[in-house]
Amino acid sequence: MPYLYQKKSRRHFIKTLAGGAGAVMVLGMLPSFAVPGRKKGVRLNLLSDTHIPENKEEVYRGFYPYRNLLKGVEQIREYPADMAVITGDLARLEGKQGDYEALKGLLEPLNGGMPVAMALGNHDVRDHFLAVFPETPGERAAVSGRFVQVIEYPDLRLILLDSLIFTNDSPALGLLGKAQREWLDTYLKEHTEKPAFLFLHHTLDDSDGALADADRLFRIIAPQKHVKAIFYGHSHVYRYDVREGIHLINLPAMGYNFRDEDPVGWVEAQLTPEKGEFRLHTVAGNTSRDNEITRLKWRG
Predict the structure, then answer these.
(1) What is the number of helices (H) and of strands (E) in the chain?
(2) Would you say residue 51 lies in a domain?
(3) What pTM, to 2 d.p., does this model score?
(4) Which of 202, 224, 246, 290 would staple 163 via disulfide (CB 3.0–4.6 Å)?
(5) 290 in any annotated domain
(6) Edge-to-edge strand order for the sheet containing 275-285?
């Protein structure tokens, strides 16, 4: 995929993110970080919580998830990338097969331009998803009952984990489980030659709907210095944190927000072995942060 010169940012932002690993939030009015001739790293378009319903006119909190993703795909087509990644809650509520069929139709304009990798969230159903999307990018890991994927690039690696345990339940907690954690522990210890980036759905805090085994996950990944960042959704909030030197990137929801102050949209990302650069694109909600750029330096 060629890397094209992009539009300039329309807004100006200069912020600082406190914490480890030298995180820095950036300036506006810069050309896109996907520069012609770039050979290192990977360019991604990142989405989460699309919540696509079979009925395209379904509305929640005044948002139409179908229309939001339709607009998002139109935007994404203007920003060629190696891949798009969606971190779960693909379906509206109950993971109906019709929801995934509607999602597949919305993603169709990206076919031939960029593959789409998807993780599963607490509003998804594995069997229904795989019936509609039987072929996915990368290699599927041998973790029984879970949808785990590994996607290789020349100088970095993406690992999509499966935190789905209950569909449309409350509290909407997630769980990797022992088998998946053991697989990840072994895999990371055997594959240390390039940086790894993890993707999953659930948040990593101590809320009732977070990843129940987050602490056990960090016991696995904290000593593995080649693990640089975790990307996730679930909260419908766009924010950046650091834990034990690992960057935590909470992607905004595409379907709708829970709070009026939060953006609804997607993130254009450039990952290299040393750093990451991210630009927010809004489609609805609070659009004041549209084109905000964030730069992060990974731990050594």
Answers:
(1) 5, 14
(2) yes
(3) 0.89
(4) 202
(5) yes
(6) 24-25, 293-297, 275-285, 263-271, 42-47, 83-87, 116-119
Asked if residue 78 is part of any domain, the answer here is yes
CA dist., res. 161 & res. 131, Å (int)? 19
> Which residues, including other chains, have CB under 8 Å from residue 143's CB and lie 6 or more apart?
162, 179, 180, 183
- One-letter amino acid at 101 equals E
Specify the CATH number for the domain of residue 98: 3.60.21.10
| Helix orientation angle between 178-190 and 214-221, rounded to the nearest 10 degrees | 10
- Are 151 and 164 within 8 A, CB to CB? no
On the question of pLDDT at 143 being above 90, the answer is: yes
Helix axes 97-107, 65-76, angle to 10 degrees: 30
The tens digit of pLDDT for each residue in 10-32 reads 333 323 333 334 443 433 323 34
Nearest in space to 257 (alpha carbons), one of 241, 239, 276: 239
Cα-based angle 241, 246, 250 (whole degrees, multiple of 5):
40
Query: What are the tokens at 150?
Result: 């590994």
Mean pLDDT of 211-225: 98
Sheet with 156-160, side-by-side order of all strands: 139-140, 149-153, 156-160, 196-199, 227-232, 246-250, 239-243
Which sign does the torsion angle of CA 26, 239, 212, 150 carry?
negative
Give me the sign of the Cα torsion angle 139, 39, 274, 229.
Answer: negative
Tell me if 3 is assigned to some domain.
no
CA angle 125, 72, 135 (to 5 degrees): 40
Return d(Cα 47, Cα 98) in angstroms, integer. Answer: 20
Q: Which domain holds residue 266?
A: 24-31+39-297
